[in-house]
Amino acid sequence: MNKEIHLLGDVFERSVSNFPDKLALKKGDTTYTYRQLKAEVVKLKNHLLELGLKKGDKFAVMGENSPEWAISYLGIVRAGLVCVPVDRLSQDAEIIHILTQSEAKGIIVSESYLEKIDDLKGELKNIKWVISMAGIKKLSPKKDYPVTDIDPKGLAVLIFTSGTTGTSKAVMLSHYNIMCNMKSVERFIEINEKDSLCSIIPMHHTFEGTAGFLFPLFRGASIYYPASLKPTDILATMKESKVTCLIAVPLLFEKFVGAVYRKVASAPLSTKVMFNAISGIGSVIPFLRKPLFARVRREMGLGHLRIACAGGAALTEKVAKALQLLAIPILQGYGLTETSPVLSVSPLEKPKVKSVGVPIPDVEIKVADPDENGIGEIIARGPNIMLGYYKNEKATNEVLKDGWLYTGDLGYTDEEGYVYITGRKKSLIVTQTGKNVQPEEIEAKLIKSEWVKEVLVIPRIDQETKKEQICALIFPDYERLEQHSQEKGITMSETDIENMYKELVREVNEDLPIYKKVTEFEIRDEEFPKTTTQKIKRHLFIERGVRV
């Protein structure tokens, strides 16, 4: 089948034609071939139209990652409706906001959240239909309802952004936006029918939606879903699927690396010596990394891995280098929900650890109003740029100007066109002398320490002087501290830990100009609250000050 595909509801048609009996989706004992996937999607499409829904009506989907989630999404858009993906972990107030603001006529929901939606029905006056994902197979529409004249450039998906800034806006993406993004990625990253993926990032997130769900079906790959997000279930699924392509947030890769090094640290001395020797050889002779660390990759469930993609948040240089040493071919990507979402990807043949790569085909990236260091706001344009924010013309006009999307990210490009992200415009700290401080720059220096698990640098007004101070909130790597105590045969007091981090801050400050120096720090007892893609909700701490 060589017919050009323009609509999301047809995204699997080429694969159905070429590989009808090949596995498309699997979770536990539930499997769908491409032929079966199409049959279920068409059946759901017909059921939705039989209900009397009209082209352009909104219909939501909410639940855990599963084949049924995929069928729900595809059935909705194939019917000419607008899909509204909902984060299953959202608070009740946010679910009510999304379903009300989107004017959704109904929702397809997994069994785990049926009761929640039922409890909220009194607040959801616009919701007329609630369909169980488990019940999709039992649907029996009376006939096939043809859908014609769906505009590829019309609204297909309405995605409410996550709350790193505290403001939730509904991003409007068309069939054309997402299909163009996939076709650009297709020319940059080779995924085919021989590949298998393990779906870990929540499917309501645009990165997973495009890169981990729609794109693999477009290319004829197989997608496996873990029973849960417990490490044991993820590992079991990666081994079962013989995963060749892994798309995940940086936190997962960080946990992989941490697990390897913890295992080595608790191993006999001979194993430690061997690991260090292999690491030394691998760092000097790159082509030996793959055979030297083959066993490690197998134990991580990555023995067949061909390509790994990190996105949704920043991958630290420390983790990127560790993955390279273990011969895990890691790609960094960059993008936003507003860009469907991919803007840039680091080339496998020539990656730069600190960069988020080069623009994908058909996408332009520029730096607006660069300062003396070449740093300014990253702006982008291309066919993947959103239609705008739903019913929010003011917010749309603030970011879409003359065809360019102003991302709110600060960064620069080098002479080869590689893009580097240095911070967020909204998180910028402006000192009393008018100097700009990017907190992410200081965070990157602190996170390099093996003793730091998470860190956030924020402004704080000194109550006496009324001057803005630069403060670091540090969540220690308590496992590493405990391991250190056991190795040294000592017990570390709170004062000892405080002094350790005081020294760390002092060392970091030595390499910073005076206006960037950290003047206060606080040690946290628990992890920072995060979005579903594990980005820290910075706004919570800027709004409330240091002690949260």
From TrEMBL:
GO function term, MF aspect, one: long-chain fatty acid-CoA ligase activity
Pfam families cross-referenced by the UniProt entry: AMP-binding (PF00501), AMP-binding_C_3 (PF23562)
InterPro entries linked: AMP-bd_C_sf, AMP-binding_CS, AMP-dep_synth/lig_dom, ANL_N_sf
UniProt superkingdom: Bacteria
GO cellular-component term (any): membrane
Swiss-Prot/TrEMBL catalytic activity: a long-chain fatty acid + ATP + CoA = a long-chain fatty acyl-CoA + AMP + diphosphate
AMP-dependent synthetase/ligase domain mapped to chain residues: 12-390
PANTHER family for the chain: AMP-DEPENDENT SYNTHETASE_LIGASE DOMAIN-CONTAINING PROTEIN (PTHR43272:SF52), LONG-CHAIN-FATTY-ACID--COA LIGASE (PTHR43272)
Protein name (record): AMP-dependent synthetase/ligase domain-containing protein
